[in-house]
Amino acid sequence: MRKNESAQDIARIAAAWLLFLVGLRVMQKMGYPLGFNVWPMGEDRNWLSWLQTGKGSEIARMFWGTNDRNPVSPWWYIAFKPLILWRENGLLFARYLMSLLCGASAYLLLRQLGPRTFALAVGILCAIFMANGYGDLIYWNFIGALSMSLLCVWAFTHYLRTGSVHWYGASVVLWFVALASYTLQIGAVLAVAYLSFVSAGPGLRARLVKALKDTIPFLGVFAVFMLIWRTASSPTMAQYYQTTFTLPGLLQSIAAGVWHPDFPVFLFWWAPRPLAHPMLVANMLALAVGVYLLMPKLPAEGARPARSTRDIIMVALCLVAPTVAVESVSVVWGPGTRWRMLHQLWVPLYVAGAAALVLWVVGRAFPARRAHLWALLVAACAFGLTAVSVGHNQDQVTATAAERAVRDAMTDVLAAEGPGTSGQVKHFIVVMGPAAGWISSDELSQKYADTWFPGRGVTLRTHSARDVGSPLWTAWPITFGPDAVKNVDLKGSSAAYGTVRVLAFDGQKIKSMAGAKHADFAGTSVMWQREAPLP
What we know:
Number of helices: 20
Largest sheet: 4 strands, mixed
Shape: globular
Order of helices and strands: HHHHHHHHHHHHHHHHHHEHEHEEEEEE
Low-confidence stretches: none
Strand order of the largest sheet: 2-1-6-7
Number of strands: 8
Structural class: mainly alpha
């Protein structure tokens, strides 16, 4: 019976996920700046360049040469390479699939710990929540790692119930995949220890012994992983692992879990956007109605509510504890920065928990309508998270359109003046205006050129207000000299003016800066060593 219930509920989660995607597509077809026109941005371009140039394990080695953490992380990209390279928005669909995976994983675990209706609510909300503080999609495979952590604990609950070593082995393997994909997913072992402790018979000693026995294999795997990682890690990355514990850092990280700096953006910037358009509101209401209908109207479950609530809270805290610990000691990843990797679960769980609290307060006045009230609350939560996700999607679509405009302008110049034509233009400098909508830093500009024009030797430098005074610009400032442009790339190269095109982008139009004077670069980090305007 439980298997049939789980299959039905996962189908409900998938249906809600599909409703969101269909709604997004409908809004796109209606002409709103929404939908699937989102391509890899920012750090995504690093991965795209490796996928375009490497094959199989070669891609993993390219990643390891740049970043010696999370050794299984590149294998997510390798596994999804056909989808990512299928279309320009392939990575977006990979990210959306991770939402579905996280929703199903959250449901399976929470169904083992608590009421079916709460587990289903969290699963649905996880599946349709697509927003994050990042504008790019660099976190997509970390959602996969989070899902592996959830499935690890789920498999362990089956081991506790059945005693089957197969479930225990599956739990260890899933945990290792999570850990090796994203090291901060170590927290599942804490959840394992907790569940083992509370499942043992009476007596503190018996509980401690069982918890220790059940966690020793996990700790052994972790120890071996750390030994291998320390052997293979790069000395050049040592600065990333410097630690200094601070009490303010700990408190700020905990505070970020309670009220993350992204939450005001969710509530006061992204969510209100679609609410200003009646047709978008109608579309989101249709999804909310669909979620209401998908929620089964079951009588209240009376099985150990206090225990289930405690277990859910404790397991959730175990999963986020490593994030808090790292943010309180790291000199690189400050409070709140790593919480974004948990948003996919934490935000829906947070919202569903608030809805459950409302049900506990209000539901006592309407006991006969409790199931319908819960379905209504979940539908309201789905409406709110959809509004946030739609607002985030609008930012992504807008940023993609801006980047595509720059690429198209460069394509036109290369077609007219690039190698193989009468000209030899290969180097581009694009000055971004305040409203350009360009989310990436200049450090990644070359990756854009490499992935837009693979194998053609095209270079790109961008400049925006965020680059002023940055260490990168201090080291490699674009310099307009008398006869050549210095630092046309981040290798310190110089190029004759005939091979360089300087463009300005204001978010709407791109224009040539030929004839620009020193005053046109006021307030930027560009260095001017010419007497005449740009040729």
